[in-house]
Amino acid sequence: MATAKEKPGVLFAAFEATPFLKTGGLGDVAGSLPRALKKKGFDVRVVLPKLAVIPEKYKKKMNYITHFYFPLGWRSAYCGIETYTYRGIIYYFIDNESYFKRDGIYGYFDDGERVAYFSKAICEIIPYLEDFNCRILHCHDWHTSLAPVFLRECYSGNELYDNIKTIFTVHNLKFQGQMSDFVLGDVLGLENVPAAANQLRVDKDSINFMKGALVYSDIISTVSPSYAREIQNPFYGEHMERIFQRRWDSLWGILNGIDTTFFNPEKDRAIEANYSKDKMKNKLKCKLALQEEMGFEVNETIPVIVMIGRLTQQKGLDLLTCVIDELAEQTLQLVILGTGDKEYEDMLKGAEGRHPKNLRVLLKFDEKLSHRLYSGGDILLMPSLFEPCGLSQMIAMRYGTLPVVRETGGLKDSVKYYNEYTGEGTGFGFANYNAHEMLFALKDITSLFRSNPKVWRKLMKQAMSEDFSWDHAAGIYKEMYNTVLEEN
Ligand code: ADP
């Protein structure tokens, strides 16, 4: 059997990962993909910032490894390393209270500096990781995007680092880390490195962290095949499309999976009653309990539509803004769980005030409540403007709640649209980003729900039979890892 030292080591770097922290899909992926990759023969370890908001029960179990200082621009930055093994995966936590001891995770005035610090710390800790043959540094989203840049510009010539290939995965292209040019010298200390300065610069006054990762990494990936194609055109490319076009042969699109142990209606303790695709009766109990909890009429014939996610433009909130009243006037019940932009939160709260009988807006992040919605809903609405992958639609299908999605990105790759002639399908789609197209689709779908329970039940069963486990995706990641390791 290969020892840890012989297995190719993959250092996974992200700002959030379940069970320590989660604000969205990145947390789910960074929490569950490493375990699937480990089963494929890689020694995967995860590096995260030791954020103050990590629950105490985990923090108190972390073990101190060492500490040291490294240069960050003109600063000498403290870097502590702590470790904790969870479900067979070794996690390293980077400790620096001045950057990470905050009430929240993101959204601070010095996020650029925090991210630059974290990216450099990822490179700095590598020599301290025992029994680890680090061959791949796999970075996720803009919070880690400078690590591939630092790795090449500050550490090359050192055999340990020269042996490492870099992969950068885009989960969210919207947040790129566009900073003033001043940061290049003051924080990154790269103003006198012409290659880095040229690659990071987007215009004469600003640099872009994610651009650094996209040009420096050996391979770029994103979280669905459709999104990998879409970002090569300007509508989806967020000004990075030229890089994606140029690097198309190093660009992989791999559809995410979900943690099917955690999201499991047969065993989930957060829901009213457990059920499976072969024993569906209890799903109705979940629905009736949800109707009661929301203060709605408890009536199995009224379709319950749920929406779970960030309340942002990406998630299609503009479509909802246009037709929320028309939608709420239908015979249906709508529950929205999420937090996000104030304008959308206000719009939804206003609509709830006008439609108290069948519209509930819950402005919070609540994992357990989300499970009650996934299990109690009949339909999950996900009308995204763009969607790199999307996990909510997969979780919904796992719980037999049929997704209604706009046909884009990972939604297109994970939902099979209902075909009324063959009876095939696991959900529904509408093509154009148009509020009335969404509304008319929902009218048709809710009418199918009421008029044809037999078809509906079949669709639920088909949705629940889909395999969204990580195993398939991990096989493609393995291929990607082997490809990058074979490159010179
Ligand atoms: P994102 O673009 O935010 O990453 P995804 O669909 O990929 O969207 O993943 C969102 C994840 O976060 C899902 O697990 C979803 O259930 C969860 N989630 C989003 N908003 C909330 C919320 N308000 N409460 C509980 N869970 C949430």
Jot down its keywords.
18 strands; globular; 2 domains; nine-stranded mixed β-sheet; 488 residues; Rossmann fold; 21 helices; six-stranded parallel β-sheet; binds adenosine-5'-diphosphate; alpha/beta
Question: What's the SSE blueprint?
Answer:
Blueprint: E1 9-13, H1 25-39, E2 43-49, H2 56-59, E3 63-72, E4 75-86, E5 89-95, H3 97-100, H4 111-125, E6 134-140, H5 147-155, H6 159-162, E7 165-170, E8 178-180, H7 182-186, H8 194-200, E9 201-203, E10 206-208, H9 209-216, E11 219-222, H10 225-230, H11 234-237, H12 241-246, E12 251-253, H13 281-294, E13 304-308, H14 317-328, E14 333-337, H15 342-354, E15 359-362, H16 367-376, E16 379-382, H17 392-398, E17 402-406, H18 409-414, E18 428-430, H19 435-451, H20 453-465, H21 470-486
Parallel strand pairs: 1-2, 1-6, 2-5, 6-7, 7-11, 11-12, 13-14, 13-16, 14-15, 16-17, 17-18
Antiparallel strand pairs: 3-4, 4-5, 8-10, 9-10
Helix pairs in contact: 1-21, 4-5, 13-16, 14-15, 14-19
Q: What structural class do helix, strand and pairing data support?
A: alpha/beta
What CATH architecture label of the largest domain applies? 3-Layer(aba) Sandwich
pLDDT average, as an integer?
96
CATH class of the largest domain: Alpha Beta
Explain the overall architecture.
The chain has 488 residues and is of the alpha/beta class. The chain folds into 2 domains: 9-257 and 471-486, Glycogen Phosphorylase B (Rossmann fold), CATH 3.40.50.2000; 281-467, Glycogen Phosphorylase B (Rossmann fold, 3-Layer(aba) Sandwich), CATH 3.40.50.2000. It has helices at residues 25-39, 56-59, 97-100, 111-125, 147-155, 159-162, 182-186, 194-200, 209-216, 225-230, 234-237, 241-246, 281-294, 317-328, 342-354, 367-376, 392-398, 409-414, 435-451, 453-465, 470-486; strands at residues 9-13, 43-49, 63-72, 75-86, 89-95, 134-140, 165-170, 178-180, 201-203, 206-208, 219-222, 251-253, 304-308, 333-337, 359-362, 379-382, 402-406, 428-430. The protein has a 9-stranded mixed sheet, sandwiched between helices. A hairpin with a 2-residue loop joins strand 4 (75-86) and strand 5 (89-95). Helix 13 (281-294) crosses helix 16. The two termini are 27 Å apart. The mean pLDDT is 96.
